Structures are given as structure tokens and as C-alpha cells.
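Human:
I keep going back and forth on a fold encoding question. Comparing notes only helps if you start from a blank page. Show me how you would write down a chain together with its backbone fold. Write it directly below this note and I will take it from there.

Assistant:
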Amino acid sequence: MHTSVGQAKSCAVLFEQFKKDRPERKGEKLIFSGVSGRDVYNITAPFPDDGELVIAGRVEDRASERSQIMFFVQREGRWVPRKGAPVFDLQDPFVSFIRGELVFGGVEVYFDGDDPHYVTSWRTVFYRGYRIADLEPFAKGPLTMKDIRLVELASGGIGVFTRPMPVGDARAMIGYTEIAGLEELTEERMEQADVLPDQFLKVEWGGGNEAHLLRNGMIGVLGHIARMDDGNIRHYYPMAFGFDPVSRVATPLKLIASRDMLPDGPAKRLDLVDVLFSGGLVRHGDGTATLYTGVSDAEAHRLVIDDPFLEYEH
């Protein structure tokens, strides 16, 4: 049984608290080229592969939801498609390393046969390999479940964060379970994950985007929390919390960034202007970390922030 500290707070309350305490920081836009004018957003943090740093990003026409995930490397200040790298017809990439093996995934989207703009369902799909060039499919999540993330635990097991929706009369919540090996990552195990209570109001939602094993064995979770206002305008904020896999206790959520901390830019639609979709976090060991995030479903930015996981390691 999971427990948590305190009751859920609304996005609005969390944002007001965050504005009072946040330091003055300004992020920067990442420049992508070689994608025929398409947008690149909802990126991962850079990760090592074959001796260089690589970013996976969602590549998409501004007026379409049909996406590809491509792998990018930095050349002369720009991120360009890596020559020879595979391309996946997926959305919202993520990566983790489990026992030295790269686990990559994204969201597979199903469109209506009669209306190519209408999405009928989606699911998370997983690939594994010791390098990008060797990735092979090995697992799929349940239908309509996004934000499934893996982390190698201090115990040697694998922690699995899930995102069931709906949960009773709640829009979506975060779940957690553990498996002994990647071969146990099945739809059944993901559906059976225990739900973490008291994280979101029933009318709001969120999910995990990346999970970090901390020095003391706790897990630092990078995620997002979201709400929709009366005008159907979406508001997404990067957030973080700590999770103890032994006691199954989660700390309260905290916001770590907001749209006004990043440069102005275009949005895919007017209802997506205030959307930040956490991609990944690089911790620097000096009390700071760099957040990589999708912005307004049109761009990818990064922002140096105070390391949100430090307090959970003490």
C-alpha cells in the first residue's frame, strides 16, 4: 500500500508557491535542422551512445499529430539527425538504462480509418539493446496508458512507474510496481501497479517522465502536472517528487519550471501555449541540473535549475 505526505494541491496553488520561491533563471531554445521544416519537441535529455551524446525528439508537422521519433547529435551548435539511426513512427520518446542496456520507448498512436486526424487510441511501446543501432521491440503497455517509465533500483530490481487513466472518477494517476527483469514487463504487471494517492486533484492529471536512482536508494521522479481551464486551455508544468521504493512513500509534488522562464515562441495550437512537457534532467553535482523540455508542442528548450532531487538524498 502506498502512502504519501499531505493532500493533493491544485496546479494553481503549486504555481503560486513556486513563483514565490523560484530563482531568476532563463532557459534557451535548442536549434534543430535537417527535418524539412518540421517541429522537434518533447525531447529526451542527452544520453550517451557509441561515444557521443544523442537526443531523441518528436518530429512533426505543425498541423499534424502524425509523428516520428528521430535521434539527433550536435554539430556546430545545431542538433541534426544522426546518420544511419533508426526512425520510429512514435510520439514522446524516453530512455533509461537498465543493467547497462538501453531501454527506449515512445507512444504508438492509432488513427481512425475514415478520419486521419482523429486518434482512436494509443499505447506505450518499448525497445531494448546495448546501442541505438541494435534496438529491438520487447514490450507494450496497456491501451491508453502513456508515461510508463523504468528505473534500476539499488536492490537490483526494476521499478516501473505507470499512468492509468481514468482511475475511478479521477482523470489519471501515477502507479508503481516492481519487476525482477525486463522480461516481466507485461501489460498485466503494468495494469496491476498500485496507485500513488494524494498527488492530483480528480479534475487534474499528471505523469512521470523520467526516474532517477538517488544515492540513498530513493527515486527522484521528474514528471508533469496538468489542468484544463474553463476555456479548454491546457496548462502543463514540470514537477518532481521523491519516492521510497522500500516504504512506498512519496513526497509532495513540487513545480520546478514554468513557461515564463523560457523564451517566447510559437505553439502548435492556441490551447497549447502554456504547455511544458518534461523530457529529461541532467544533474551536474554542483547543486544545479539542466531540464530538457518540450514547449507548446512546437519547440524544445533547456533550463538550468536548482537540482530538484538533492533534498530527497539527505
